[in-house]
Amino acid sequence: MARGHQKIQSQQKNAKKQADMKKAKGHDQKTAAKAALVFTCSVCKSQMPDPKTFKQHFESKHPKSPLPPELEGVEA
């Protein structure tokens, strides 16, 4: 077991490297932006972050289509 200490050091170094890579990968702006888009237009499938924007989109892009029930009480 002459290389036992070196093996342990190598394992610790690799664990630290893996943790750093996981931490760096976890904070992704694109993923966070995608998670914020919660409302999806039923006509064109575009995504909006809040109901106000969704209602404005629906009224301007799809004026002939009936308003979805989830937008009935929303102030634009």
TrEMBL record:
A biological process from GO: regulation of translation
Record domain Small EDRK-rich factor-like N-terminal: where: 1-37
Claim: Repressor is one of the keywords in the record: yes
Span of domain C2H2-type: 39-61
Pfam family, one: SERF-like_N
UniProt superkingdom: Eukaryota
Region of interest: Disordered: 1-32, 50-76
MF term (GO), any: zinc ion binding
Location within or outside the cell: Cytoplasm; Nucleus
GO cellular component: cytoplasm; nucleus
UniProt keyword terms in alphabetical order: Cytoplasm, Metal-binding, Nucleus, Repressor, Translation regulation, Zinc, Zinc-finger
Compositional bias ranges of the Basic and acidic residues kind: 17-31, 52-62
Stated name of the protein: Zinc finger protein 706
